[in-house]
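Input for the complex:
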Amino acid sequence: MADPMPMTDSPITTVAPGWAIAALGILGALAVTAAMLDGALAARAGGGPGGKMGGPVRPFGEAARLMRQRRRTTVEADRLLWRIGGAGLLVVAALMVTVVPLGEWTIFDLDVGVMWFNAMDVMVWALVWLTGWGANSAHSLVGGYRFLAHGLGYELPLMFALVAPAIAAETLNVGAVAAAQEGLWFAVWMPVAFLVYLLGVAAFSVWGPFAPAIGTDVSGGARAELSGVDRLVFEAGRYALLAAGAAFAVPMFLGGGAGPLLPGWAWVLVKTVALLAVLVWLRRRLPAFRPDKFMEVGWMLLLPAVLLQDLVVAVIAVWRS
Amino acid sequence: MLSDIAFWGIGLVAVLGGAAVFYVDSMARATYALALSFVAVGLQVLFLQQNYVGVVTILMMVMEMAIMAVYMVMFMGMNPALMPMSMVHSNKTAIAVAVTTFLALATGILMVDWPTRRGSPPPDVTMALGESLMGPKMLVMAVISPVMVATIVAGVVLAAHRTRYDRFGDDLKQRPADDPQPGGVGR
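Predicted:
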């Protein structure tokens, strides 16, 4: 039998599998940065749900508190599915960044890397719903279904937003998409796809306008019964997904490692952190999308807009070749 | 060698996941056992160097199982989906059919003369697969797609108990529409 997944000739080098540990470290550092920034913004907004524990150190206090907390149990919980759902977000975020090149290096130079990322973000549908389902609690289940309701609205626009850079670069390899943006970033001449993609990142991170699935009006929704380490892992997973989404946008829309003076890997990190900061900041700037109404917004506004964007990109791509 | 072991191991996961669908007693577990089985199949397809087909299989099947959870509460009366329930019915008939089918197929496999391989795999197997599926039959594919979409739309229209007169009133002039579930763009 042949080795799986032969790699295409792409402008980037595949590093030894051991470097996956380093990639996880970077992802973790980005997630912590996002959490610290969110803590700082919460303090400025006059204290978040953490009460007095505002400021950039809030995530550390919160982590310490959750690690000492006793685990809450519920009657007839489907514990297997519940734990898979809660812990899965972090795993999915880690699998997402495997195809994101850091400058010229990547862990997994898959020829269909864009589809890989897409498949991983669809996993979040299953995981959030399983978290909501597993606890055998009404509020929790309502939260799970709220996420699916959002998912039906945001996923197709997100998929077609990912199509635009792939058409322009004529490849699904993430490194080759980054290399195809010499001179002009895709974010500049396909802004609709870029914005819809960012909305999708917020959505699969259950973030900002897509937070009703874990909203306080349903006592925490999908995470209502999560406590202790389980809750810590779930929250870490959300920040990690936000970070992975920001990191993936860099090769797809922001020219990858291209930039003056600094080396490629540094530019990738700088762009990722900048985009991550924007996403964290938007949390308090956008109203919640109601899960019962968002689907029509997704299909009547976002989907036609992003399809038109794809058409424009396709016409330009044909005209250029 | 290592990839052979991985391939067969994943195959085992796929078969056991498929069997678990009928063994477990909850819709959620059955649904996601099926998802696990399909994810394993998708990974196996990666070993066949059909990267695109493999990743798309994982993507579509996980999404489909999540949609299944929506249908579970939409269409199952009294929500038995939320309670423990058996995943099998008509056991004796099903076992008889399954055993007969297995024996027939196994006999066929053992009886038939297997052809020897002609030629060698092309460099891009996904492209070759696409061309052999679509190439000479593009007209058929192009005709089938709109027919399928029309069938789905017609099925939904016939199944829905509300008509445009319920939405827009007897003279079709009522705006916005009177829907039990209002949409987000105010139509």
